[in-house]
Amino acid sequence: MSAITAAHISKSFGEVRALQDVSLSVEHGELFGLIGPDGAGKSTLFRILTTLLLADEGEASVAGHPVVKEYKKIRRKVGYMPGKFSLYQDLSVQENLTFFATIFGTTIEANYELIQDIYVQIEPFKTRLAGKLSGGMKQKLALCCALIHKPEVLFLDEPTTGVDAVSRKEFWEMLQRLKEKGIAILVSTPYMDEAELCDRIALIQHGKILQTDSPARLRTSYTHPLYAVKAADTYRLLKGLREAIYTRSVLPFGGFLHLSTRDIMDPEQIKNDLDRKGFSNIEIKKIEATVEDVFLELSETDELKTATR
Ligand SMILES: Nc1ncnc2c1ncn2[C@@H]1O[C@H](COP(=O)(O)OP(=O)(O)OP(=O)(O)O)[C@@H](O)[C@H]1O
Question: Where is the ABC transporter domain (predicted)?
């Protein structure tokens, strides 16, 4: 049986349809990412799966128990790191950990093996108040607190938001090690680069799951020719490319524009066209799609479908 299953979950807050017919499953020992921007519905799904909120429609089970009927059993078997406010800021590192161990009827010593790798990094600061820790340290402490009762399933809601790049990398390495111990992990993130670190991902937007698959299969599902293009005046370039007859779509991507064309083209052909239109410092190369390209493509198609309904 899967560690998490959600089937046709919907939830509205007044007029806001936070989740619309969401289904997914996560296996034991799987690292599953819920990838989407702010307001996509990620926290709402986490709250339903961790038994803190009731869905309007649909069914879910976690660690073998249905979320409504057996919520008490689930609470003993899951670890939850909510996006914000999971630590007591005016308790020390050690006091926070002891507190979470005590409410689950266990001790730090009993489950030390599971948190050891992570805890050794914050142990030198064990008497420091949680409120005085750096973002990366807070995140490690919150993860230790979520793990202290040896959960079967771990829910991590945007654990790396507001954390520096080095700590983010370390955090994902820790998740890989936890997964190898058989724990099922559902992690949400708005960062598309983190999607690559998951076994499977679901792309979510406006409460709807756009697609679920492995990052590699999602990337290769993008079949249109794609180019990264740069020139001196990015805004004019965006406008110019949008008007070109060979363009399917063009979207800003860091310092480059990602241009998807109707047919395969020689990059020289595009460069010549831009030369003729008076652009300077043109750089162009053919590229493979990233998860973000796939996300933007799917979300645009979904918005068009919704608008024409
Ligand atoms: N308790 C609530 N009352 C009213 N609206 C809510 C409530 N909780 C969430 N929403 C709305 O539901 C939608 C989904 O919110 P949710 O918090 O699940 O998104 P998210 O993907 O986790 O993004 P964020 O990172 O911004 O929390 C948003 O439009 C949000 O404003």
Answer: 4-231
Residue of minimum CA distance from atom 17 in ligand 1? 43
42 lines ligand 1 (CB under 6 A): yes
Domain of residue 125: give its range. 4-219
119-147 pLDDT per residue, tens: 998 999 999 999 999 888 898 999 999 99
> Is 148 part of any domain?
yes
Q: Is the CB of 44 under 6 A from ligand 1?
A: yes
What long-range pairs does 243-248 form, CB within 8 A, spacing at least 24?
244/273, 246/270, 246/273, 248/224
Bridge partners (DSSP) listed for residue 153: 78, 184
Query: C-alpha angle with apex 239: 279 to 236, nearest 5 degrees?
Result: 40
Best residue among 9, 13, 35, 156 to mutate for probing ligand 1's pocket (most ligand atoms within 8 Å of CB) is 13
CATH number, domain with residue 117: 3.40.50.300
**39 and 130 co-located in one domain:** yes
Strand order in the sheet with 283-286: 247-253, 256-261, 226-230, 283-286
Give the whole-angstrom CA distance, residue 234 versus residue 76: 53
Q: Do 250 and 123 reside in the same domain of the chain?
A: no
pTM for the whole structure: 0.91
HSE toward the beta carbon, residue 57, CA cutoff 13 A: 10
- Looking at the structure, tell me whether residues 183 and 60 fall in a common domain: yes
- The C-alpha R_g of the chain, in whole angstroms, comes to 23
Report ipTM for this prediction.
Answer: 0.95
Same domain as 196, residue 110: yes
The best mutation among 44, 45, 47, 205 to test binding of ligand 1, ranked by most ligand atoms within 8 Å of the C-beta, falls on: 44
CA atoms within 13 A on the CB side of 54: 4
